[in-house]
Amino acid sequence: MSAPAPPPLAAITGYHAHVYFDPLTKAAAAALRAEIERRFPVEMGRWWDRPIGPHPEPMYQVAFGTAEFPRLVPWLMLNRGELTILVHPSTGDDRADHADYPMWLGRALTLRLAFFDELEAARAAAPKKPTPEAPA
Ligand code: ZN
Q1: What are 114-125's pLDDT values in tens digits?
Q2: How far does residue 58's CA lie from ligand 1's centre (Å)?
Q3: If you write DSSP's letter for every residue of 60-89 in order, what string do you get?
Q4: Which of 81, 104, 107, 135 is most buried, with most CB under 10 Å away?
């Protein structure tokens, strides 16, 4: 069985960086967040103080464009401290973006990929109803 061909580079419309934290690292995550906002043209997501979607630990999301990748990601490499950060592309395939194309800065976490199956099942069961948005 061979894997399906990956999408072309042009399929990447942007990226997310998910910055994970716990009660002990929340202050460091807040300091990093302030610096990111000060330095980079990004779209900051809200704080999630509990696991949400495929994310197994509390986090906030940083959305950024492809042009920002070569500035922001190296900066995160040097400045993340003890924090774990997931960087994934947005190709239009949320599951693959997380399951197949992720990049981890620091300790890799095990994502709750079953979330995408549950989402798929919910959409199949109720195609007319909007699905509650959860950050992926
Ligand atoms: Zn994401």
Answers
A1: 999 888 899 899
A2: 13
A3: EEEEE-GGGHHHHHHHHHHH-TT--EEEEE
A4: 135
